[in-house]
């Protein structure tokens, strides 16, 4: 037991340093797997000691609150994944492009080992256990306690967010079916347990032989343990055997299974690191998004100006002496020479204003390109934010500075086209008076 606890302590050290770790407990029904993992009040098991050791090391390293510990607890019962901390319908496993498997579990933020023990006790009450011929409180499901640690590390001028995971697995016991067994709930459970353990053995054999294809999809259990068996993870396997002579065959199978499992070689490395974006880069990203917003507004204003210009040109053509006035909404007084001159003047004013707006729009585009080029040089994290058009989360302590280089678009003035009062002498010396 001391060697087991010493190995668990080494795994906890790796988790604090940013490595994934896993402890598996395997054996026949009644061999003491659950006792090894949970223990009792006077003799705590691997789960309890590992959790207490983890929080003790976090307090010793003094992360100053820059760390978060998330707890999830699940079971695999009859090939259905269930959340022990939030009982309900079975969960669906999903695999992303990188091969990571997620089940949509509820995660509980904990600040002490006592809180984790409370959650662990609550989850065990929801776990499927029944009496069998070999054990009065036999576990009828595989239970996995997941502990995710996130903490920040200051490195020179940047901050790195490091994430690691500790998986503590209490496997259900393998069972031997007899010829007198009937098709009952217990026999169906036993068949499901043996099926998942057989899938686990197949994966271990494939990993030991270094095959390219590992059949993780044979069972929900092996899908959940994919990163623990073949990923960048430190894994310890505990093989429990019974001293009873009636369990000779089960003991032999367990030792044979453990002998194959110890041949697996995993690659231990820093699990997940994410570069935290400095406040200055966040500020520049905000400026870029604001610039893009202003560019869109300028684009809409330019389109509106072009529509107005088309309308003015249409009125100009309509007012030409060579074309008849067919619109009933236009009065003859709108096409007098003074009114036409006024209309042409307004047309040139609008054209000049449109040119000014297009110039401002070009300046905005150039400024956006300069800011984008600067941000891309700062790192891939900022580039990803820009490509996804991600804004800074609400509540972030970042002051927004409007850059003086960004030109505020000038709102287009609305020019009313009208004809003032004019006195016009026609060649016949008849005096006409035109008014609006």
UniProtKB/TrEMBL annotation:
Keywords: ATP-binding, Coiled coil, Microtubule, Motor protein, Nucleotide-binding
The UniProt record lists the keyword ATP-binding: yes
Residues annotated as binding ATP: 27-34
GO CC, one annotated term: microtubule
GO BP: microtubule-based movement
Region (Disordered), start-end ranges: 414-436
Superkingdom of origin organism: Eukaryota
InterPro entries: Kinesin-like_fam, Kinesin_motor_CS, Kinesin_motor_dom, Kinesin_motor_dom_sf, P-loop_NTPase
UniProt biased composition (Basic and acidic residues): 422-436
Coiled-coil portions: 286-315
GO-annotated molecular function: ATP binding; microtubule binding; microtubule motor activity
Domain Kinesin motor: 1-264
PANTHER family named among the record's database cross-references: CENTROMERE PROTEIN E (PTHR47968), KINESIN-LIKE PROTEIN KIF19 ISOFORM X1 (PTHR47968:SF13)
Family as reported in the entry's similarity comment: Belongs to the TRAFAC class myosin-kinesin ATPase superfamily. Kinesin family.
Protein name as annotated: Kinesin-like protein
Organism: Taxus chinensis (Chinese yew)
Lineage, opening ranks: Eukaryota, Viridiplantae, Streptophyta, Embryophyta, Tracheophyta
């Amino acid at each position: 037991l001391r060697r087991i606890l010493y190995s668990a302590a080494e795994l906890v050290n790796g988790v604090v340093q940013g490595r994934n770790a896993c402890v598996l407990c395997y054996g026949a029904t009644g061999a003491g797997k659950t006792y090894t993992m949970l223990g009792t009040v006077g003799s705590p098991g691997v789960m309890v000691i590992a959790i207490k050791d983890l929080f003790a090391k976090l307090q010793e390293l003094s992360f100053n609150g820059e760390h978060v510990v998330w707890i999830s607890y699940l079971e695999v019962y009859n090939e259905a994944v269930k959340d022990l901390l939030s009982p309900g319908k079975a969960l669906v496993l999903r695999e992303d492009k990188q091969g990571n498997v997620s089940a949509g579990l509820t995660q509980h933020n904990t600040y002490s080992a006592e809180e984790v023990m409370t959650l662990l006790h609550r989850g065990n009450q929801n776990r499927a256990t029944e009496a069998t011929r070999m054990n009065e409180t036999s576990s009828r499901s595989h239970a996995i306690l997941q502990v995710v640690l996130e903490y920040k590390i200051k490195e020179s001028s940047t901050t790195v967010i490091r994430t690691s995971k500790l998986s503590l697995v209490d496997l259900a016991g393998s069972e031997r079916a007899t010829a007198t067994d009937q098709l009952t709930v217990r026999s169906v459970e036993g068949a499901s347990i043996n099926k998942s353990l057989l899938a686990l053995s197949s994966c271990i054999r494939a990993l030991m032989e270094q095959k390219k294809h590992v059949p993780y999809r044979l069972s929900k259990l092996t899908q959940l343990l994919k990163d623990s068996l073949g990923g960048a993870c430190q894994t310890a396997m505990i093989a429990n055997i019974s001293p009873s002579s009636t369990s000779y065959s089960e003991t032999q199978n367990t030792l044979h299974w453990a002998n194959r499992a110890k041949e697996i070689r995993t690659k231990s490395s820093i699990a997940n690191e994410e570069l935290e974006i400095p406040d200055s880069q966040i500020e520049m990203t905000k400026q870029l998004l604001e610039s893009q917003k202003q560019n869109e507004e300028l684009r809409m204003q330019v389109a509106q100006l072009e529509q107005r210009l088309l309308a003015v040109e249409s009125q100009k053509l309509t007012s030409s002496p060579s074309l008849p006035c067919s619109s009933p909404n236009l009065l003859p007084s709108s096409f007098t020479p003074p009114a036409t001159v006024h209309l042409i003047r307004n047309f040139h004013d609008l054209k000049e204003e449109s040119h000014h707006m297009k110039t401002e729009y070009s300046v905005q585009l150039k400024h956006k390109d300069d800011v984008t080029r600067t941000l891309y040089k700062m790192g891939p994290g900022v580039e990803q934010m820009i490509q996804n058009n991600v804004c800074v989360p609400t509540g972030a302590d970042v002051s927004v500075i409007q850059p003086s280089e960004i030109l505020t678009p000038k709102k287009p003035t609305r020019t009313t086209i009208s004809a003032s009062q004019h006195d016009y002498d026609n060649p016949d010396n008849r005096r006409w008076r035109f008014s609006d």
